[in-house]
Prior knowledge:
Radius of gyration: 33 Å
Largest sheet: 12 strands, mixed
Oligomer: single chain
Structural class: alpha/beta
Strand order of the largest sheet: 9-8-21-20-19-10-18-17-11-16-12-13
Number of helices: 19
Amino acid sequence: xxxxxxxxxxxxxxxxxxxxxxxxxxxxxxxxxxxxxxxxxxxxxxxxxxxxxxxxxxxxxxxxxxxxxxxxxxxxxxxxxxxxxxxxxxxxxxxxxxxxxxxxxxxxxxxxxxxxxxxxxxxxxxxxxxxxxxxxxxxxxxxxxxxxxxxxxxxxxxxxxxxxxxxxxxxxxxxxxxxxxxxxxxxxxxxxxxxxxxxxxxxxxxxxxxxxxxxxxxxxxxxxxxxxxxxxxxxxxxxxxxxxxxxxxxxxxxxxxxxxxxxxxxxxxxxxxxxxxxxxxxxxxxxxxxxxxxxxxxxxxxxxxxxxxxxxxxxxxxxxxxxxxxxxxxxxxxxxxxxxxxxxxxxxxxxxxxxxxxxxxxxxxxxxxxxxxxxxxxxxxxxxxxxxxxxxxxxxxxxxxxxxxxxxxxxxxxxxxxxxxxxxxxxxxxxxxxxxxxxxxxxxxxxxxxxxxxxxxxxxxxxxxxxxxxxxxxxxxxxxxxxxxxxxxxxxxxxxxxxxxxxxxxxxxxxxxxxxxxxxxxxxxxxxxxxxxxxxxxxxxxxxxxxxxxxxxxxxxxxxxxxxxxxxxxxxxxxxxxxxxxxxx
Length: 585
């Protein structure tokens, strides 16, 4: 069948077809060119009655395949069909019932053969699953997760920690059968309980740091971060009953009132602002009824704010002297206690005072910017979204993350499904960022680095992993940071998207492995050629022609790009197209 080599041009070899037949079953089959010291791997890409056209792919060295050709075979080299043992170096070990191997799907070129990949090579790196709507992404994701647990006869991955952000609520059904495997559990969180075995997502408000608040309140101006920093300091001061906190409370109120006294406003404005503040923010020693002792008589602070017929506040100096006795302390980290419990109402109360203490009432421009923080927080507090921030029992961030992977019966859960189906995209994006930051912080604070690996799988990633303003406001984008730094801490991102060109280019470029179902938008195909190192333009062209459920898999874990057909998941996710005729007729 394979005769002598006729021609060699760069990485293409023309070889004689001695059978004089066009055997189409040999298309895309791999062959081996052998000489004294090495084996060169090629793929048959064209067959005529006279010759085979073979493109060279790489070389086999002992027990591994290396892509790329340094030296073409000699003209005298013999050619043969690849052996099974050699083929396994290209498409994966066929013994996939092993803790080291992950079953991907079925080989298109080799009937009866599976495409597998080293588990560690795939899941120790960020990955992306791509494909236009209707091409089978959800089924591929469900099948991939099921394969992790279904076929491993050597050991059950009981210490896996997969977080699936399920934007449409598709995967609840697909994960049910996994729980029938001994030692494997799924914990289901949701934004609206409509199924059994689910619970509402909730995150403690006292977990929210400055960056979280900036994300929650959609801050678009970095100058507002200082107000949020003060807010979190003031939450403790106003919430605590500790004597030291009382001293700080007097201090910050007095400083705010002193600023008003020296603001240059008229007496009526000064009086009204001070009265308004002290009616809401006061202490037993600093309030409208606080006594100010003057030579010969004593008046209350409110009486000292009286204005005479000429519009003057004659006792303003006495008020100033009274307030100055409180300005003796500096806010420091010592009073900002750990595990201090507060809610959104406490944050709002502190935020209002932070705005006052920043003097926003003196600048209309600054007031308009800062007032947006109040408006957004107030809107959340007076909407159904508030329930996602109601946590009554004190818990640390470390305990919170660990308990997410425990069932109510205290059993270890390997999969956490976060169903965001009942909230809008904007708020889903906010929660996704806050939770991702929480997981990343948890992992980076572990003494034993990488001892608690977390895989964050994000459905419809193009909605959330975008080129937004986070970098200019916070100095970073959490998804970009995780993809750049998370791998060494065991935090791995998995992006599922139908529009890779709309993702953050930084995040996508950090992915090492790709499963691409059918894509045909030119921008999406263009971005694929720029981020993947071991895929050619010819491979990318194949992506446009793929059938539903079929994907080109490639990346650092795959020796070669391979077209793979996924088995249907069992059970399937709730992602099928609607049956229009069933409704119409």
